Amino acid sequence: MEFIIDKQNVKVTVVRDFAARPEKVWEAWTDSKILDQWWAPKPWKARTKHIDFRTGGYWLYAMVGPEGEEHWSRADFLSVENLKSFYGRDSFCDAEGNINNDFPVSEWKVTFTGKGNSTSVTIEIEYEKLADLEKYIEMGFREGFTSALGNLDEILNK
Amino acid sequence: MRRDIFRALADPTRREILEMLAVRKMTPNQVAECFESSRQAVSKHLKILQECRALTGERVGREIYYQINPAKFGEIEKWIEKLRLMFEERFGELDKILSGANPGISKKKGR
Predict the structure, then answer these.
(1) What are B63-107's pLDDT values in tens digits?
(2) I want to staple A38 with a disulfide (CB 3.0 to 4.6 A). Which of A31, A108, A144, B94 is the partner?
């Protein structure tokens, strides 16, 4: 996996190859039944409430914790080119999908490139400012994306 | 306002200052001479960098010499590593699904 952080442009680029054909990888990224199985790292689970995977549509889902706690997110699809790429805006929201503007918004572009029987996926995530990226990861920590993560504020302010 | 390293790094002049100080220790005057902006402006940048502990100052006689604080930058690298691990973990799960270990994915595409 390639992983590049461009601090100047507040952009994260991740490139990862998957051992499956583009149709299958695309399906795993766009079908909520499959997304719910992998999008949330353990012990959290993603649970889709609504998905309409086309330009102008959106995905509303909760990250559900081991104690049943819920963190809602919403991805608005600004453009979808079937089997090739999609571009969208990610926000934090409530269970009804009302966007919470106190939290950072990021724009994601995900591109799928077939290479025979495998597929290379490029994810480009852009934030408005570096502090937003910091906040996003801090929240990711709280949602349990990885275990044993300290509180970012503590790390940064000690 | 809370001073954090990410806000400090968001400014291009401060990034330039850090790059200079990564190479050698410098006094505020020496730093200011490298920039068009006023001495006060540079001094403010140094203050912000020092508040978030990106710099440490060492007093030698009447002069203060600034240098970057490598420990602080180690923290950023750790933080970035955590983001990387977050993606690795997710994609590991996706690999399992794609390899067919999971019955959830449709088989129709292969025909």
Answers:
(1) 999 988 877 776 666 667 777 888 888 899 899 999 886 555 554
(2) B94
Residue B110: CB atoms within 10 A of its CB come to: 10
Q: Is B84 on the interface with A (CB under 8 A)?
A: yes
* Chain centre to alpha carbon of residue A60: 12
Contact partners, residue A85, CB within 8 Å, separation at least 6: A79, A109, A110, A111, A112
Q: What is the pLDDT of residues A50-72, one digit of tens each?
A: 999 999 999 999 988 888 888 89
Of the residues A24, A121, A123, A132, the best mutation for testing chain B's interface (the one with the most B CB atoms within 10 Å of its CB) is A24
Phi–psi pair at B54, nearest 5 degrees: -75, -25
Alpha-carbon span A71 to A113, nearest angstrom: 32
Question: In this structure, what token pair is assigned to residue A12?
Answer: 């994260």
Residue B36, number of CB atoms within 10 A of its CB: 7
Structure tokens at B20: 């200079």
Report phi then psi at B92, rounded to 5. -60, -40
ipTM beyond 0.90? Answer: no
